[in-house]
């Protein structure tokens, strides 16, 4: 499959991340590619799991629903072309790495 998506940055508000987390949780048993806006407003299909979205949600303190923060997204291929890592750079510079099997995800 090659690269799942090209690296991009997304400015997301606490409210957006909360809605995305709810969506991912709804599809927890049958993962879907989540559509995340890049800096130009284009939608990028990202294979993201509920635990990873929960980590993104924790970046926002209570009451910061309208505050926007910058997240970096990139794909690191694994040994098998179907497997790799979703890498997310959090606003504070910390990095999340989600082991990902692309064939588990389908389009919404």
Query: Could you give the distance between the termini?
Result: 19 Å
How much of the sequence lies in strands comes to 35-45%
Tally of contiguous helical segments: 2
Helix content: 10-25%
How are the strands of the biggest sheet laid out side by side?
A: 1-4-5-6
Taken together, the total number of domains comes to: 1
| Global mean pLDDT | 91
Elements, N to C (H/E): EHEEHEEE
Write the layout of secondary structure elements.
Elements lengths: L7 E6 H13 L6 E5 L5 E5 L2 H8 L10 E10 L5 E7 L5 E7 L7
Helix pairs in contact: 1-2
Provide a quick synopsis of the model.
The protein has 108 residues and is an alpha+beta fold.
Task: Characterise this structure.
There is one protein chain. This protein is an alpha+beta fold and 108 residues long. The chain has one domain. 19% of the residues lie in helices and 37% in strands. It is built from 2 helices and 6 strands; from the N terminus they run E-H-E-E-H-E-E-E. The strands form 2 sheets. The protein has a 4-stranded antiparallel sheet with strand order 1-4-5-6. A two-stranded antiparallel sheet has the order 2-3. Strand 2 (33-37) and strand 3 (43-47) form a beta hairpin. Helix 1 runs antiparallel to helix 2 (50-57). The longest helix is centred in the N-terminal third of the chain and has 13 residues, at 14-26. The chain is globular and about 40 Å long. The two termini are 19 Å apart. The mean pLDDT is 91.
What descriptive keywords fit this protein?
108 residues; alpha+beta; 4-stranded antiparallel β-sheet; two-stranded antiparallel ribbon; 2 helices; 6 strands; 19% helix
């Amino acid at each position: 499959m090659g690269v799942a998506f090209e690296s991009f940055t997304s400015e997301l508000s606490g409210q957006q991340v909360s809605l995305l987390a709810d969506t991912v949780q709804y599809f927890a048993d049958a993962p879907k590619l989540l559509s995340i806006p890049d800096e130009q407003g284009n939608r990028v299909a990202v294979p993201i799991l509920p635990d990873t979205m929960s980590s993104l949600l924790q970046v926002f303190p209570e009451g910061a629903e309208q505050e926007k923060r910058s997240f970096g997204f990139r794909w690191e291929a694994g040994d098998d072309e179907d497997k790799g890592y979703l890498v997310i750079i959090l606003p504070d510079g910390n990095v999340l790495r989600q082991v990902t099997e692309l064939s588990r995800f389908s389009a919404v």
